Amino acid sequence: MDTLNTSSSPLNFEEMYEQFHKLIYHIAYNITKDVHLSQDTVQETFLKAYIKMDTLKDPAKIKSWLTAIAKCTAIDIVRQRSKRNETCIEEHEEFHSIEDHRSLEDEIDARFLKSSIQDHITHLPLTQQEVMALKVTEDMSDREIATKLNLSPSTVKTRFHRARKQLYSIVQMKISA
Description:
It contains 8 helices and 2 strands. The chain is mainly α. The chain folds into 2 domains: 102 residues, RNA polymerase sigma factor, region 2, helix turn helix motif (Rna Polymerase Sigma Factor, Chain: A, Orthogonal Bundle); 71 residues, Orthogonal Bundle (Arc Repressor Mutant, subunit A). The protein has a two-stranded antiparallel sheet. Helix 1 crosses helix 2, helix 2 crosses helix 3 and helix 6 packs across helix 8.
């Protein structure tokens, strides 16, 4: 079982999630202003944290480490939606101040996460694999995926949401193993 040693006691990944998921959700919601995007941000934040847990040099700073991941993840999600003309990011003042501090390391982490997701896509049901692969590897919008797969946009959103949950479950199973 993966554990993080904090000053008070060892903290495993599940305990870390229980302790910080509400905080991460609130940070995400303040940036995205959307319940579903905030939930997606929480899932992606903890997926990134699990993958990069070995890079946490000082476990006593886990809260600030997770909040930094959450902010960058939420901004990336909002930026992706903005690229797809689903929302207008320029109205978010926080985006500009945080974007200025984005580092090359964050970009590398994002690419690593994308690669890791691609590796685990094969564990998903075929219908979810199609949607996830098009969204992650080809960065297609829901409408583009719907058109390509001859589905409704709401079906694409549902399959993508389920695929994300399934990927999160796969990560959780690896934690428990």
